[in-house]
Write a structure and sequence with these properties.
Shape: globular
Bound molecules: 3-methylbut-3-enyl trihydrogen diphosphate, magnesium ion
Strand content: under 5%
Radius of gyration: 18 Å
Number of helices: 15
Structural class: mainly alpha
Largest sheet: 2 strands, antiparallel
Oligomer: single chain
Length: about 270
C-alpha cells in the first residue's frame, strides 16, 4: 500500500509540476508550489485509481483527475489553517502557508489552486471527451462548494462548542469529505469521506503530532463536534468497522478488483498521518 501511494504521489506531483511550469510565472506561484509540494499522502488519488480500475480507465487519465482533486484539497487545507478557521501553524510537517507567506497571500494561493483544478480538467492534458470534462468540472464544483466542502467547513466552525446530534455530525463530516463520483459510487464516496474524517478525528485525539505533520489534540480544545466526542472512542471505531464492512460488501461484485479499495479503506482507518 505504501509503495502504491508513493508511486501515485510521485506521478501526481510530476503532472502538477509540469502543468505549473507551462503557465506564465506570477507572484503567487511560490505560495501555491509551497502548498502543493511535497504534499500529502494522495489518498484521494488512490481511491480514484481503485475505483477507476473497475472501469478500466487509463492510469494517466486518473492521475490527471487526481491532480485536480489534489489542488482543491490543498486549497481547502490552506484556508482551514487560517486564523479565522482552525488557526493552525503547522501543516504537513512544515509551517502553514499563511505563516510562511502571510494571510492575504495564503487566501489568494488557495483561490488560485481552486481555479487551477478546473483549468486542469478543461485542459488538453486530460484526454477524455468534452462531455466527460464538463461532467467532471460540474461534479468537482458541486463537491467543493456550499453543498460540499465549503458547506461542511461552515458547519464545522458553527458547531464548535455546541451539543450536536449524531445525524448532524455525520451530515457535516460527509460534506467535509465529499468525494462523490458517479451514481452508485456517490454513496460509497460519501461513506469513504465519512470514514476518512472519523479517522482524522481519531488521529487528532490519540495521534502523534510528529507523525501526523500537524498539531494534535486541537479538536477537544476547540470544542469541535465529532462522533468520537458523542459516541466514545470504542464505538467510533466500531462505527468505522461497520462502514468498511458495508462498502466492501457492496463492491464484492467487482471481484478481485475490489481488493485494492479494501486495502485503501484499511489504510485510511489505521494510518498515523
Ligand atoms: C487532512 O487530509 C485533512 C482532512 C481532510 C481531514 P489528509 O490527511 O488527506 O491530508 P494530506 O493531504 O495527506 O496532508
Ligand atoms: C479539514 O478537517 C476539513 C477540510 C475540509 C479542510 P480538519 O480541520 O479536521 O483537518 P485537519 O485536522 O486540520 O487536517
Ligand atoms: Mg477544520
Ligand atoms: Mg483543521
Ligand atoms: Mg482534523
Amino acid at each position: 500500500m505504501k509503495n502504491k501511494l508513493n508511486k501515485i504521489a510521485k506521478d501526481t506531483n510530476l503532472f502538477l509540476k509540469r502543468f505549473i511550469n507551462k503557465q506564465n510565472n506570477s507572484e503567487l506561484i511560490p505560495s501555491m508550489v509551497y502548498s502543493l509540494f511535497p504534499g500529502g499522502k494522495k489518498i484521494r488519488s488512490k481511491i480514484l485509481i481503485d475505483i477507476g480500475s473497475f472501469f478500466s480507465i487509463d492510469y494517466k487519465t486518473l492521475v490527471t483527475i487526481g491532480s485536480a482533486v489534489e489542488c482543491i484539497h490543498a486549497y481547502t487545507l490552506i484556508h482551514d489553517d487560517l486564523p479565522c478557521m482552525d488557526d493552525d501553524r503547522i501543516r504537513r510537517g512544515k509551517l502553514s502557508t499563511h505563516i510562511k507567506f502571510g494571510e492575504s497571500t495564503a487566501i489568494l494561493a488557495g483561490n488560485s489552486l481552486q481555479t487551477m483544478a478546473c483549468e486542469i480538467l478543461a485542459s488538453p492534458s486530460l484526454k477524455v471527451s468534452e462531455k466527460i470534462k464538463i461532467n467532471l468540472i460540474r461534479k468537482l464544483s458541486e463537491c467543493s462548494g456550499h453543498l460540499g466542502v465549503a458547506g461542511g467547513q461552515y458547519l464545522d466552525l458553527s458547531y464548535e462548542k455546541k451539543k450536536i446530534s449524531k445525524n448532524k455530525i455525520i451530515e457535516m463530516e460527509i460534506k467535509k469529505r465529499n468525494i462523490k463520483e458517479i451514481k452508485f459510487f456517490e454513496k460509497i464516496g460519501g461513506n469513504i469521506g465519512l470514514l476518512f474524517q472519523i479517522a482524522d478525528d481519531l488521529i487528532d485525539i490519540k495521534g502523534n503530532s510528529k507523525l501526523a505533520g500537524k498539531k494534535t489534540g486541537k479538536d477537544q480544545k476547540k470544542g469541535k463536534a465529532t462522533l468520537i466526542n458523542l459516541l466514545g472512542h470504542q464505538n467510533a471505531i466500531k462505527y468505522c468497522d461497520k462502514i468498511i464492512f458495508d462498502i466492501n460488501k457492496s463492491l464484492k461484485k467487482y471481484g478481485t478488483n475490489s481488493k485494492n479499495i479494501e486495502e485503501s479503506l484499511n489504510y485510511i482507518l489505521n494510518r498515523e498521518r
